[in-house]
Design a protein that fits this description.
The protein is mainly alpha-helical. Helices cover 72% and strands 1% of the residues. A hairpin with a 2-residue loop joins strand 1 and strand 2. Helix 3 packs parallel to helix 9, helix 4 packs parallel to helix 7 and helix 13 packs across helix 14.
Length: 359
Amino acid sequence: MAISDQAPRIEERAHVSVMSRIILSQYSILGLTVVYFVVCWLFFPRILSIRNIDNIFSNVWPLLAVAIGQMFVLIVAGIDLSQTSIMALTSVIGSLLITNKLDPNLFAKSPFWGWLISASGGPLAHQPGAVLIAVLVMLIVGTIVGILNGVSVALFRMPPFMVTLVSMILFSALAIFLPKSQNIMNLPQSFNDLGEGRLWIIPIPLIIGILLIGLVYIILQRTLVGRWLYGIGHNPKAARISGVPVRSVIVFAYAMSGFCAAIAAIMYSGQLEMGRPTLGATLLLDIVGANIIGGVSLFGGRGRVGWAFIGVFFFIILANTLNFMNLSVYLIDVIKGAIILGATFLDVARRRLAAHQMA
């Protein structure tokens, strides 16, 4: 074959190689986010105002917390649709414990009225250490719900989609039933600070987010459990043959999902200064979408905490800029859905390219 005939093929292969590297790179989304933000800034200069930047980062940390929990489940090739209901349930339970005052006209029909809550508030109202106890209860409740999901999936081999869908419906209804659809106000300021306060000049949600990122990084990258999680996601049969306690690890993944959802509930409830029975009801699209955008695979075996952060950052920037465009809520959801669909195709492309390169 003549050299002149080989040159176009070499250039074509080089072009394909560059495109493959771009598709496989997890940092291409970060670059796209920066470019998108700069372009939007040219049309909406207020995007770079200190107030808006502070608003962006205040929304990053609670969404990142719940997205990290979803990442654990996605790594083992599962999915958790119940995270938003866990957020709502833990928000309600924690708030009922520490609220300082309740309106009898609104809460008298609650099943807790008269023996656990009253007009003077919850059982921990004005008590020392009340916020710490409430936070621990919220984390425990979230983890228990996650464990129930994990046991149903791992031990009873029920489909993760169906298990967590039922959990979402059940616990969402319970979160609404307990306070009779009422938001729970009059929370201690020390609890609200967990969502919007500062330690000196450092936002407390930032501190919580960094601690969670560090914990998850250690689990995934520095422990045997982390290797087991990835192994199960890649090939559960091979992992089982290799001696990996597959069922226990899957339960652990769902427990982490519930635990992280409770952390997000703490921060969101603090931001809102209330317990909300519908907390997170519109966030499921963002939670799953942020993971897919960041590069966490729906097929399992792939996921990093840094990828989840990039995906969350992209979604927060996207939502922020779309609000500046004064688009309707429905159109915003359509745009988000289209982007997630595109990210799903990208996930499939990454999987096929990775398989082709390994072949």
